[in-house]
Amino acid sequence: MSRINTNIQSLLAQRVLNQNNFALSSSLERLSTGLRINRGKDDPAGLIASENLRSEKSAINAAIANAERADQVTNIAEGGLQEISGLLTELQGLITGSANNAGLSQSEKEANQLQIDSILQTIDRIAAATSFQGKRLLNGNLDYTASGVAAGVSDYRVNGAKLAFNQNLAVQAVVTTSAQKGGLFLSTGGALNLGGGGNGAFTIEVAGALGSRELSFASGTTVSSIVSAINTFADVTGVRATASGTGLRLDSGEYGSAEFVNVRVVNAANITGTGVGIFGLQSNDFSVASTTGFSFGSTSAFTGIRDNGQDIAATINGISATAKGRTARINTDFLDVEVTFSDNSSNNTAQTRGAVNAFTITGGGADFQLAGQVDIAGKVSVGVQNIATRKLGNSTVGFLSDLASGKTLNIVDGDLNKAQKAVAEAINIVSSTRGRLGAFQKNTVGATIRSLGVSLENTSAAESTIRDANFASETAALTRNQILVSASTNILALANSQPQAALQLLG
Hints:
This protein is of the alpha+beta class and 507 residues long. The chain has eight helices and 24 strands.
């Protein structure tokens, strides 16, 4: 059958040619862009997935940059702390040298004090000047702010705390076991009665965490004299005595399991009296002596009676704390805080079991976003305390600023023993801060950069699998489509020439 008005074969060839041209254009586009998905119609679901992965890649790249910036900030802070550490070491040497009282003139001491003043001023200057893009790093800007510090808290330190936006964090402690000093009660019945003193002097060895000393007392020696003699060597033994009724009480200088008091009777010298001997202290009331004890002439007294101190036990915000003496600390991903409980007579929380609303963290700290997802889990917080001299030390031994001229711990006429302890505490604060920042750099920042690098690789691979063109298959498709387009064009030409056969019917 021959028709000329409607060429069905031509229409068929045109449709197939258009399809082949579209397929050829698609292959050329994919090969020219390198992408399998160039617009939504190429693969709607694949486009959504790949755009989400691209967003994650961008966030991961930003998190890596944040981690690198955190490392740079920490490096600058470490540089300032390193210089301060060197100055504190030099300061320690000046104090020790100045303690050589008989070998130094007044002018030499005053010259050493000038050096100390210069060191203190330099420490304050470094603390105020160490900065990153104008932000001070060691002057307390990166420290946490707190309010409502309980009277039962003598010292505290916040090393890290993750705070939600515009929210405070209450630090609540529960003391489950009280802190204790090592302690013994020596009942002498008042002044020593050695039955005339024919058996020599009453001799005891007093030992503590710092050392021991052997002391001898003659018959008739009063309790106050014994107390004075023991306290003369308190810095040597770590044991301090106080008169109590007809005897004396011996206490370790500090709280904790590392502290102890040990009394060994070397010569009882036939000491007599009502209830004389060595007594422990009651476990439920440390201020009261036990009703049972050991006589000075007993075998136990000869080998030594010892009482150990006890570390506090507490939970902070529901986490079991590690403790040393009166200080309890927790270190978690969300809160790293250290609390020292008071031991003063009016509010002795260190020896009182129960709950303590320690303080409330209201802000501050250095926050770094080290994850692609912006939430509290992806944030890392670290606190850098004020390294000024008025903040280096503690309320017990004093602060570094007390070593300045005219202050209580100056080396010309001040207490050099406490001055050295204050410097030692300052060295401990600076070195622990350096160690904490070093751990932050190595374990947190370093590990984060490596982890994010792996995440970036895997995310890029996933996005590439979905969106990138496979050149092997696309070049094969290109060749096929080129052949089909050429064939379709030839067929269309044949289809268009077919109606001319109708002319033969017209003769």
